[in-house]
């Protein structure tokens, strides 16, 4: 918990490199920010101005309830009951300073030392968001279940599958947590898979936390967005970040009161409550329906088009004599590339690309124990994550450098030492 996660370390490295090289044109394909979409920025700016005018004193000049501003909590309840036919009330909702903080709180509450056994935060499928690994006080407090791996006949795509038997046989599970669409793969858990995970949660008598940061109902960055599932074992977590407001750090969770109430208490003791002005902004977006309009008319189509562009660019640019594959993606903001070659190493690739002015994210950081894989072998050291959010010119130039670097490595023209 007191050390940087692998990805945050990489982000620090990127920031340092870019600050220390004025005049150098860096091509950052590792960025996790949402794309700068003018229409989305304009909408959030207008909603913020309205909130400043209508509720600045109430929101910013006094403390509020730890659960969240009543107006926002009520707006969330009304929105999800209306949209999905749920039957939730205010006691099923908690608003926090970002969905990652809510995940940290859940991990602190539902895992760790117990009366009868120690319990672990379990990722039902790795690779998954590397930030989850920073949620625990000890590296031994988190474990990931290695996936099954299916390759497609065309030779350029693959897909991870849940290993449910391995998940069921664990005896240390305290909380299960996954992102869908996934970061880094863009994989969406299907309704059947969510039902399977719920059955595992019931068997272990633990909650299943589903991180919908890229999914439904907003930002809806997926070709076919699976609706969130309401179940007494499921803690659904939602974020405003990828809908265009990452700097405001606002998220909320919906779940059974037995899980939500301890989270509210934790927030009260730790931070009092989430920032309140942006809570008013989100309440206005939900009440007016503006957020749905943004997703349907702007955010969803933008990312669908951008993903198609990047995948086509990779297919046209990456060397044909290298065995590379893209994870079959359903959505999200990233492309997950697997270079299935004995000579390929993700950290070596990262270092070499950095020397050539391009940043990507090495794949090992998305695996909980990349050096001790029982099934995947070197797979965890053969992947890189590429963001689709940079502008097309940056993407085109960066992917050209990636392609040339793969060509050079394959030809044995360059060798770069690996630094752990």
How would you characterize the overall build of this protein?
With 420 residues, the protein is α/β, with parallel strands linked by helices. It has two domains: 149 residues, Aspartate Aminotransferase, domain 1, CATH 3.90.1150; 226 residues, Type I PLP-dependent aspartate aminotransferase-like (Major domain) (Aspartate Aminotransferase, domain 2), CATH 3.40.640. The protein is 40% helix and 15% strand. The protein is built from eleven helices and 15 strands. Strands 2-10-9-8-7-3-4 form a seven-stranded mixed sheet, with helices on both faces. A six-stranded mixed sheet has the order 5-6-11-12-15-14. A two-stranded parallel ribbon has the order 1-13. A hairpin with a 5-residue loop joins β5 and β6. The protein is globular and about 65 Å long. 48% of the residues are buried. The C terminus is likely disordered.
Percent of residues in helices: 25-40%
Continuous helix count: 11
Low-confidence stretches: 416-420
From the alpha carbons, calculate the radius of gyration and give it in angstroms: 21 Å
Strand order of the largest sheet: 2-10-9-8-7-3-4
Tell me what the CATH architecture of the largest domain is. 3-Layer(aba) Sandwich
Query: Termini separation (Å)?
Result: 19 Å
Instruction: Give the name of the CATH superfamily of the largest domain.
Output: Type I PLP-dependent aspartate aminotransferase-like (Major domain)
According to CATH, what is the class of the largest domain? Alpha Beta
Q: Kindly report the CATH topology of the largest domain.
A: Aspartate Aminotransferase, domain 2
- Number of spatially distinct domains: 2
Q: Shape, please?
A: globular
Q: Tell me the structural class.
A: alpha/beta
Q: How do the helices and strands follow one another from N- to C-terminus?
A: HEHHEHEEEEHEHEEEHHHEEHEEEH
Mind describing the biggest β-sheet?
7 strands, mixed
- Number of DSSP strands? 15
Q: On the 0-100 scale, what is the average pLDDT?
A: 91
Portion in strands:
5-15%
